[in-house]
């Protein structure tokens, strides 16, 4: 995977006042020194309790001799480059690479609405079967956890769990945005991985959780039974925290698809 950066990422200040400290966004999946999610595939079969494990193996194989496609991402046209056969593991890009959407003779794709931070993770997944921070299995604790950038030699330093979304003007959970992007790109395994990683996040601001939930409902089909259910369960399970944040009543009064589903449970959400 090749990336040419044309500018430095902007830094965005966080100004939310209420932290989401007591509740994780989900539960870690139990299974059994740390190793990668893919490396543990064989050992997981020997456990009495077998978690559902998607295949996150890299699709690269012998595809690195295929033509290079240049992808121009975001309004500032940040440039990425990837092999055509690697991109074609996404049904969205497979259709593009067949030729009808490529710029004439240039093998260049324009994605002005995408965020470079999100697209970079999509490419990383296509080449490596995971995206940073990686999902690792802790054998001693028999749990799945996210890579520690400070203690892992392969880490890249501190990584933010949120990305600033220009269209909404808010910080959103990166894994939620990746899930929705994978939905558009026809990448079911990436959706499962993003959802699992989001379940390991903690310390997220209540306002960020609610904004990300709205984004998820706006960018997934009504038939989605994973990410939407994840947010509904999270908000209900952590209702006392959301109540203390002072934002739940206002959010529900604003309405929308998600809050229509929550409205029937208003008493449980707004009671102690």
Characterization of this structure:
There is one protein chain. It is built from 12 helices and 9 strands. With 272 residues, it is an alpha+beta fold. A 4-stranded mixed sheet has the order 1-4-3-5. Strands 2-6-7 form a 3-stranded antiparallel sheet, with no helix packed on it. A two-stranded antiparallel ribbon has the order 8-9. The termini are far apart.
Summed up, what is this model?
Helix content is 38%, strand content 14%.
List the total number of helices.
Answer: 12
Number of strands: 9
What composes the largest sheet? 4 strands, mixed
Alpha carbon gap, first and last residue: 50 Å
Strand adjacency order, main sheet: 1-4-3-5
Low-confidence stretches: 3-32, 40-54
**Structural class, please?**
alpha+beta
Order of helices and strands: EEHEEHHEHEEEEHHHHHHHH
Query: What is the typical, i.e. mean, pLDDT?
Result: 75
C-alpha Rg, in Å? 20 Å
Q: Approximately what portion of the residues adopt beta-strand conformation? A: 5-15%
User: What oligomeric state do these chains adopt?
Assistant: single chain
What is the helical fraction, as a range of percent? 25-40%
How would the global form be characterised? globular
Notable characteristics:
globular, single chain, 14% strand, alpha+beta, 4-stranded mixed beta sheet, 272 residues, 9 strands
């Amino acid at each position: 995977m090749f990336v040419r950066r044309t500018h430095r990422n902007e830094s965005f200040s966080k100004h939310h006042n209420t932290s989401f400290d007591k509740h994780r966004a989900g539960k870690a999946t139990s299974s059994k020194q740390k190793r990668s999610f893919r490396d543990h595939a064989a050992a997981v079969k020997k456990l009495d309790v077998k978690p559902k494990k998607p295949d996150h193996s890299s699709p690269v194989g012998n595809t690195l001799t295929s033509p290079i496609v240049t992808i121009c991402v975001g309004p500032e046209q940040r440039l990425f480059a990837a092999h055509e056969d690697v991109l074609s593991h996404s049904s969205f890009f497979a259709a593009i690479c067949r030729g009808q959407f490529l710029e004439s003779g240039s093998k260049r794709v324009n994605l002005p609405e995408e965020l470079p931070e999100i697209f970079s993770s999509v490419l990383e997944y296509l080449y490596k079967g995971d995206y940073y921070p990686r999902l690792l299995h802790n054998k001693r604790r028999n749990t799945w956890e996210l890579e520690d950038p400070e203690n892992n030699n392969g880490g890249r330093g501190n990584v933010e769990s949120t990305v600033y979304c220009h269209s909404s003007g808010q910080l959103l959970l990166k894994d939620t945005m990746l899930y929705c992007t994978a939905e558009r790109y026809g990448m079911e395994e990436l959706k499962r991985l993003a959802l699992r990683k989001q379940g390991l996040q903690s310390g997220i601001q209540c306002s960020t959780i609610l904004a990300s939930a709205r984004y998820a409902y706006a960018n997934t089909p009504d038939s989605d039974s994973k990410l939407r259910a994840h947010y509904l369960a999270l908000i209900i399970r952590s209702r006392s925290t959301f109540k203390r944040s002072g934002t739940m009543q206002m959010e529900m009064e604003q309405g929308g698809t998600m809050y229509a589903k929550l409205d029937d449970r208003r008493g449980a959400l707004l009671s102690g």
